[in-house]
Amino acid sequence: MSSSYAIKMRAAKGERHISGAERIVAASDAPAAAAALVKRALDHALDTPDFINVKLEAARKVKELEALKVTTHQVATPEAGWAVMAEVLGSIGITDMRRIKALFEATYQMRGAMLLDADTFERLEPDYKRGIRATYMDGDYPERNSPVKHHFEEALVLATKVANAPGIVAEICVSDDPGYITGYVATRQRGYERITVLKKPGSPLGGRIFFYRGSRDKVAKTIAFLEKTPVIVRGVGRKAIAPAESLSLELAEIKAAGLYREAHPADPKLAVFAANDYLGLAPAIGGSTGSRLTTGTTRYHEALENLLARFKHREAALLFATGYMANVGTISALVGKEDAVFSDALNHASIIDGCRLSGAKTVVYGHLDYDGLERQLAATSARRKLVVSDGVFSMDGDILDLPRFLAICRRHNALAMVDEAHANGVLGKTGRGLAEYFGSEPPDIEIGTLSKAFGSEGGFVACSRLVREYLVNKARPFIFSTAPSVKSVKSSIKAVKAVMAHPELVARLHRNLRLLGDYPTPIVPVVVGDEKRALRLAEELAAEGFLASAIRYPTVPKGKARLRIAVSAAHTPAQLRRLKALLEIT
Asked: What is residue 461's three-state secondary structure?
């Protein structure tokens, strides 16, 4: 990298180290990178520093390294995490974990890492108080100049540099960040191995040991490489964690912190002092008494979710009060400020609002422009990528090419989410939606509504058990909304059972569609352009006994006003023929 600068930030409060980070950037990027590092120091979870030092110096002869292979070990306790650490170190002949843990505790008060002989455990760093500082390094991961700490990427950069130092055979590390309980062990043979739990939540204790194997006269060369050689680690962005693994890791941290949530029916033998049913009316009217995580979950809610999961051939389903809440809650839970969400230009308003509320970078791609979506995904290397599309678009009735959509998402390690509000009960031989219609695998997340083909109310997510578990713990509209009423849930159960038992309803719907023309979905747009003309046409139809909505700006763009004809299996052939004649649909 020509005309580059190494930027180092160190922050402290009194004698206590608070934060440290560094970048290697082009000269033109140095001011912004330095400002971001200062902001990061000021916002650190450990404390507010009273001293921040930022140092810039020219970086010459920058060495490029390929990022280590990444493996993740999911554990539930620090004890299990250290057992994994022992197994990895044991594979290279380092076996005395009692002594290692004792020495590791001595690193808690050190500013740097302990340099330890891998066989004799002799300490090799010249200054025991300071330790060894691996410095002058950066990686090619996304958003590295933001003020947010990217734990995984920064750790992978450091571990890669350390693993390439002469004589270093292993490194162990636990962060001193109270909110980050994941650590790692890195070896040349096995690469970078993340361990999800290595300390208790809230603990500010963390440290690092470098294990050296070789002659003593080469220790100085090792230290010089660690502390003085500028390094850029390539391929950090390509080591991104798979979306499912990322969700699982977050859940592990939630569980370790004692913040895990589950929704269960209340024990009927207990006197309830947790409900919001202040006048005691809910049992008589079939109402809810609280959120799903307090008193709002009943056996009927669980029965509906199990039924919806069977209907969609998925592992699980999660019920929301509305389809709007399902979209907003799911998107805002799955992505945040370090992430990117990709949204079709004609997606429903609930998707648009979910993208805005998430705080993620929102990338709008052209309507059903699969090539454009692929280009934009390729140009983005956010922590987590979510691609969201309507399955059947609510104003034009056109259909997402699900197999092509999924192939693009898989190529770019992105979560695929499809809103099937207008596809469930409509597409596929038995009305199960796009996957059945195309004969393909389903997307990672399917959003559904009970207020369209099912004629009831509510929204749902059909997904894996992992995604459901994640949403229960992270989706704010689920956590903080009163549960759907028992009365509406019972109605939905009846409706879903009716669709599952009577696939002829779907066949009748499509026979009715053929009476109007060659339409694959019940949404038949009659575009007239002018807003006033659309209103006049709706009034003329009403005079003939037909109710059809005039859709105008801002629901559709100006000059695209239309009648939105919605066909049902309940319409008669005579009604459809008369409507076709009135609209002159051919």
From this structure: strand
Structural tokens at position 264: 């269960």
CA 117 to chain centre: 41
CA distances in angstroms from 94 to 90, 131, 171, 202, 576, listed in the order given: 5, 21, 11, 29, 79
DSSP code of residue 109? G
Read off the pLDDT of residues 34-89 as tens digits, 9 standing for 90 and up: 998 898 888 876 788 999 999 999 888 899 999 999 988 878 789 999 999 999 99
57, two tokens: 């110096």
Handedness of CA 331, 336, 340, 346 (dihedral sign): positive
Secondary structure of residue 382 in the 3-state scheme? coil
3-state secondary structure 8-43: EEEEEECCEEEEEEEEEEEHHHHHHHHHHHHHHHHC
The position carrying tokens 């950066």 is 138
CB count within 10 Å of CB 252 equals: 19
Question: Beta strands of 109-212 (E only): which ranges?
Answer: 114-117, 137-139, 168-174, 183-187, 191-195, 207-212
Token digits of residue 6: 């190494």
CB of 233 closer than 8 Å to CB of 138: yes
Q: Give the pairing of strands 523-529 and 561-566.
A: antiparallel
The 3-state DSSP composition of the chain as helix, strand, coil percent (nearest 5) reads: 35, 20, 40
Which position has the token pair 């290595």?
198
Residues annotated as part of the active site: 394, 422, 452
DSSP assignment of 55-76: EEEEE-SPEEEEPPPEEEE--S
Find out whether 317 and 460 touch, Cβ atoms under 8 Å. yes
Task: Count CB neighbours of 361 within 10 A.
Answer: 18
Residue type, 350: S
Q: What domains does the chain contain, in order, with CATH numbers? A: 4-60 (no CATH), 64-239 (no CATH), 282-498 (3.40.640.10), 504-583 (3.90.1150.10)
Greater pLDDT, 506 or 257: 506
- Show the tokens assigned to 575: 């009604």
Please tell me the distance from the alpha carbon of residue 279 to that of residue 337, in angstroms, as a whole number: 42
Q: Which of 13, 55, 50 is nearest to 37 (CA)?
A: 55
How many Cα atoms sit within 13 Å of 476 on the Cβ side? 8
Q: Is 527 within 8 Å of 534 (Cβ atoms)?
A: no
What pairs with residue 298 in β-bridges?
none
- Predicted structure pTM score: 0.72
- Given a contact cutoff of 8 angstroms between Cβ atoms, the answer to whether 490 and 450 are in contact is no
Q: How far is CA 49 from CA 53, 150, 245, in A?
A: 11, 20, 34
| Residues 454-491 pLDDT 10s | 999 999 999 999 999 999 999 999 999 999 999 999 99
